[in-house]
Amino acid sequence: MKSLPSSPLSNGCFENASFVRRARKQLREADPVLGEIISGVGPFIPGTVKDTFDALVQSIVHQQLSMKAAQTIVGRVRGLCPARRLTARNLSGLSTVRLRGAGLSRQKVSYLRDVSQHAMQGYLRSARLKKMSDEQVVEHLIQLHGVGVWTAEMILIFNLQRPDVWPVDDLGLRQALFRNYQILPKTKRDELIRFGEKFRPYRSVATWYFWRSLGTGIIPGFK
Fold first, then answer.
1. What's the pTM value of the predicted model, to 2 decimals?
2. Mind listing the domains of the chain with CATH numbers?
3. Could you tell me the CA-to-CA distances from 70 to 58, 61, 86, 100, 176 in Å, in that order?
């Protein structure tokens, strides 16, 4: 199948009721299995975060951790910050000892140091990111130490609220596709990308429903 161009930018679209109605309707029509999932799950209510730095910190913490463990660590780190605000200045003011005491590995402390430094230099300005295409956002973010494609895709979904992200490297999505379509978790990326074409231009919404088909604990949502 010929690949399609990226969808137009739609920052903040998840808060638009008409967008959600269109997405749910088209996804139901595109695939009966997903249609049943949508009916069973109900309303589309993703856990989004307005601040890009906050969302990026949480996404980094979630790397290779269970949902429960990651959320516990995020809560501890937030508790170390003045007014519980995850800002670049607040985080950069915390010692390595305190961050390690919150449960962060040395590697992730290093990642957060780098992200904080870049954020204070304007690298994560929301207005700048909102003007970029999905591909440009990913390319921009993966320049940061410790930020890979998956982490950037989580920012696209949970912070920028882009409508058509299909994170084929996400373990939860692969598990859902196996459970609902018997697509093996080790299936090649190209095959998963082709399978997801029928969910365009609402692949972010489809992804969220696939996550929810496994239960709420699988979603890498943020607090």
1. 0.90
2. 13-47+164-218 (1.10.1670.40), 52-158 (1.10.340.30)
3. 8, 6, 15, 14, 21
